[in-house]
Specification:
Blueprint lengths: L2 E6 L4 H12 L6 E7 L3 E7 L2 H7 L9 E7 L14 E2 L5 E9 L2 H10 L9 H16 L3 H11 L2 E9 L6 E6 L4 E4 L4 E4 L11 E4 L4 E6 L2 E6 L4 E2 L3 E3 L4 H4 L7 H7 L1 H9 L3 E2 L4 E2 L2 H4 L2 H6 L2 E6 L1 H18 L2 E6 H6 L9 E6 L5 H12 L3 E6 L5 H5 L2 E4 L12 H21 L4 H12 L1 H10 L2 H10 L4 E6 L4 H15 L2 E6 L16 E5 L6 H13 L3 E7 L4 H5 L2 E5 L7 H19 L18
Parallel strand pairs: 18-19, 18-20, 20-21, 21-22, 23-24, 23-25, 25-26, 26-27
Antiparallel strand pairs: 1-4, 1-10, 2-3, 2-4, 5-6, 6-7, 7-8, 8-12, 9-10, 9-11, 11-15, 12-13, 13-14, 16-17
This protein binds 2-deoxy-2-amino glucitol-6-phosphate.
2-deoxy-2-amino glucitol-6-phosphate binds next to helix 11.
Length: 611
């Protein structure tokens, strides 16, 4: 989850790199650094934010047309100046930045120490750098060849940028498991972990593939595989606008992205959901319909908010497609040696497409013969590249660490998937199919209705912002939304919150209920409605403070609640797309009122690319 930026060309490298690192800070950081080459190698690095680094180099020598920069999220070695990247090789010639983990670094470090190498940091990155130096020295080979040999011997994930002070015209880059994008300029090249630092300079980019090495000069880009065979760079045209990255007038990216949801859900449905002609068209599904309809089992692997989308999908696929579905935390699935049979369908849900836990879960399932379908937001990211098929959520860059618009994008894609497969299997009547398509088509406007006036949610946030605990309860399709609401409150306002199936309260957690405990019910009108009314009454009888998400026009739930947030009526299968919106807003306003950095909450990173 570190951020990487490199530049080579006629411009001053320092400002390009610093600005790029600031655009990448959302990926997670605890330190930052930059290396430049002019007549000598200049290396500056510091614990803290990029702005702290920028301040620390004021007045220093910064003139150069080639450089690499890095924002770090610690994996090996605590956040500190010495552990920040870039690192310097023992001979003082080479410098390297790295995003990822070298799993066998300890044995390599021991080998190098026995040869007399010394280390000024606790990082795996510095080990890799000196390993490269050692190979270059002993094999009497080029830096590129030394890197190739080293990469074949290390185990783990990496995106690296490497420079040699004796060759100020070249940056060597390589990736496996951590993303790398190269921007193609006129007589210049930009390198970064994603497109955000590049887009203001060029829209032509190359997504480097795993096991590829890039030799980058101002006017030349050579791609090779680890077998030293040249690869043809595939140039993609970015369709992101810089404005899409800026906050667009909102106080925070998170609020902007919550308010983008009517359009991002619309974009997700566009060209795919066609109720006028009674069709859903998704090439990833249509081209693999037989595999998807004949599957005996679907396993959904994901993490965090994406895992909650998986839980909603479980209810949808089982109800509509009559296929057995299991939802797995990716990190658990990978390590418990799961039963995966030929023909099983694995759906990976991920906003970033780079989550290491999800990636590695997929790789092991793929080896066992499963069909991998990726539901991802970040175009060109790693998960789509290893999937057999997939569907993008088209939510655009999600900068806020807390996932909001990507989550509803996932629900929109999964709803269309379930409907399309059910139609193909004949497990849904045409009448219900058309009804649900029309309900789905109306969702963007209903989300817009919720967002029209949020002042009452701000009042509720003010009222409960000093709570120290909260419970979120829901049933059926709203149970995963209770979990999602709890996660949002935790990660944005740092208030401890737990989500539960509402009926589960009587099996223990109801002991927690006091007059100080806010209990949030996700209680929209659905087939569980009478049941959840009873659950609300159970809490009310124990003087719990009740905040509800209810359907517009409902009288009963509001009469039992201290506060109510309303959403428009829709089919219960699609209710999560609406009931989550007030909970996203509630966590946002509580976090803001508590004065927290809601876009970059403490300890969190946007893309968790370490296991
Ligand atoms: C969501 O608000 C969290 N930031 C986090 O749980 C996130 O959903 C999780 O890390 C998975 O990320 P992904 O969707 O990019 O795979």
């Amino acid at each position: 989850m570190c951020g990487i930026v490199g530049y080579i060309g006629p411009k001053e490298a320092f400002p390009v790199i610093i600005k790029g690192l600031k655009r990448l800070e959302y990926r997670g950081y605890d330190s930052a650094g930059i290396a430049l080459i002019k007549d000598d190698l200049m290396l500056y690095k510091k614990k803290g934010k990029v702005a702290d680094l920028e301040e620390s180099v004021l007045g220093k020598e910064l003139q150069a047309n080639i450089g690499i920069g890095h924002t770090r999220w610690a994996t090996h070695g605590e956040p500190s100046d010495r552990n920040a990247h870039p690192h310097l090789s023992n001979d003082g010639n080479l410098t390297l930045i790295h995003n990822g983990i070298i799993e066998n670094y300890a044995s390599i470090k021991q080998e190098l120490s026995n040869k007399g190498y010394t280390f000024s940091s606790d990082t795996d990155t510095e080990v890799l750098l000196n390993f490269i130096q050692d190979i270059k020295l002993n094999e009497k080979c080029t830096l590129e060849e030394a890197l190739r040999i080293a990469l074949k011997r290390i185990v783990g994930a990496y995106c690296i940028l490497l420079m040699d002070k004796n060759d100020p015209s070249t940056i060597i880059a390589a990736r496996k498991g951590s993303p790398l994008v190269i921007g193609i300029g006129k007589g210049e090249h930009f390198l970064a972990s994603d497109a955000t630092p590049i887009i203001e300079y060029t829209k032509e980019v190359v997504y480097v593939n795993d096991y590829e090495i890039a030799i980058v000069k101002a006017d030349e880009l050579i791609l090779k595989n680890l077998g030293n065979e040249k690869q043809t760079p595939f140039i993609t045209k970015l369709d992101m606008e810089l404005a899409a990255i800026e906050k667009g007038g909102y106080d925070h990216f998170m609020l902007k992205e919550i308010h983008e949801q009517p359009s991002t859900i619309f974009d997700c449905l566009r060209g795919r959901l066609l109720p006028q002609i009674g069709e859903i068209r998704m090439s990833g599904i249509d081209n693999n319909l037989e595999k998807l309809t004949s599957a005996k089992r679907i396993v959904i692997v994901a993490c965090g908010t994406s895992w909650h989308a998986g839980l909603v999908a479980e209810y949808m696929f089982e109800e509509l497609c009559r296929i057995n579905v299991e939802v797995e935390y990716a990190s658990e699935f990978r390590y418990r040696n799961p039963v995966v049979n030929e023909g099983d369908v694995i759906i990976a849900i991920s906003q970033s497409g780079e989550t290491a836990d999800t990636l590695v879960a997929l790789e092991s399932a793929k080896e066992k013969g499963a069909f991998i379908f990726g539901v991802v937001n970040a175009v060109g990211s790693s998960i789509p590249r290893i999937s057999h098929a997939g569907a993008y959520t088209h939510a655009g860059p999600e900068i806020g660490v807390a996932s909001t618009k990507a989550f509803t994008g996932q629900l929109a894609v999964l709803s269309m998937m379930a409907l399309r497969i059910a139609q193909a299997k004949g497990t849904i009547s045409n009448e219900r199919f058309i009804h649900l398509m029309k309900e789905l088509e109306a969702i963007p406007e209903k989300v817009q209705d919720i967002l029209k006036d949020t002042t009452h949610i701000q009042v509720i946030a003010e009222k409960y912002m000093n709570a120290t605990n909260a419970l979120f309860l829901g049933r059926g399709y709203n149970f995963p939304i209770a979990l999602e609401g709890a996660l949002k409150l935790k990660e944005i306002s740092y208030i401890h919150a737990e989500g539960y199936p509402a009926a589960e309260m009587k099996h223990g957690p109801i002991a927690l209920v006091t007059e100080e405990l806010p209990v949030l019910f996700v209680a929209t009108k659905d087939s569980y409605y009478e049941k959840i009314v009873s659950n609300v009454q159970e809490i009310k009888a124990r003087k719990g403070m009740i905040i509800s998400v209810a359907t517009e026009g409902d009288q009963i739930i509001p009469s039992l609640s201290n506060d109510t947030m309303f959403v428009p009526e829709t089919d219960e299968i699609l209710a999560p797309l609406l009931s989550v919106i007030p909970l996203q807003l509630l966590s946002y306003y509580v976090g803001v009122k508590k004065g927290y950095n809601v876009d970059m909450p403490r300890n969190l990173a946007k893309s968790v690319t370490v296991e």
